[in-house]
Amino acid sequence: MTQLRRPLVAGNWKMNQGGAGAPALAAAVCDATRGFHRVDVVVCPPFTAIAAVARQLQGTEVQVGAQDLYTEPHGAFTGEISASMLLEAGATWVIIGHSERRSLFGETDAMVALKTKVALEAGLRPIVCVGETLSQREQGKTLEVVHHQVNAFASIFADAPGVGAIAYEPVWAIGTGKTAVPADAEHVHAYMRDRLRDVSAELGDVTRILYGGSMNATNATGLIGCGEIDGGLIGGASLKPADFASICEAGQNSINFTLRPPAFPKRPAAHQERS
Ligand code: PGA
Prior knowledge:
globular; 8 strands; alpha/beta; eight-stranded parallel beta barrel; 13% strand
């Protein structure tokens, strides 16, 4: 981790804790991470729990994210949620293009790019997910796949360098207990950072690239300790406050300064109100 990037650990609760248990879990995360001032901690509950979790976390350092959004501001889109609705509920982050959305719900690179643009324009910080499947890895296509996925949104990220983050999540590692060896993950992260540098040196320097896929209390220090791994996107372990806090602690201990990520650039009002 270089001095330009503050560690970020985000919990992706997936389709768990959508009701009364959500504020309780958020409170437990908050208690367990109290005093960690050198890492950004984010929890991403299901849509139904965002408002309650945001209320619970008000005035604390733990931030709230959503797991997806839709690209239109309002209208006849049954079942979808807009960026402004997420902001209103209290979210400041949003996960985009998770491999489960790509594989189960048919999200394409083009949709991921549009969602990224909409999120940034609305004032939400995106965490955009990329990663290869097992068969792509076995065919030696990992770098090609992530290059293609990152290319789809890199120029959009370049409009607000460092505001959003990328999560490298090898699909074969998600929820399987199999984790990339730190050196392998580091290699992919360094490659992606070089591709961001192709767009702009600043973009490469300030974009936080998280690792995700079976990160846990035991392997987090080895992964986040790598210079190119700026934190984690955590699924299963984010539902266990003590485990999640251990991962946040690995972020907290990975550097010794407290530089904040850049604020949103000022945008014309038309960009902020997409109605
Ligand atoms: P996992 O999930 O930590 O349970 O592997 C990570 C993710 O899907 O974001």
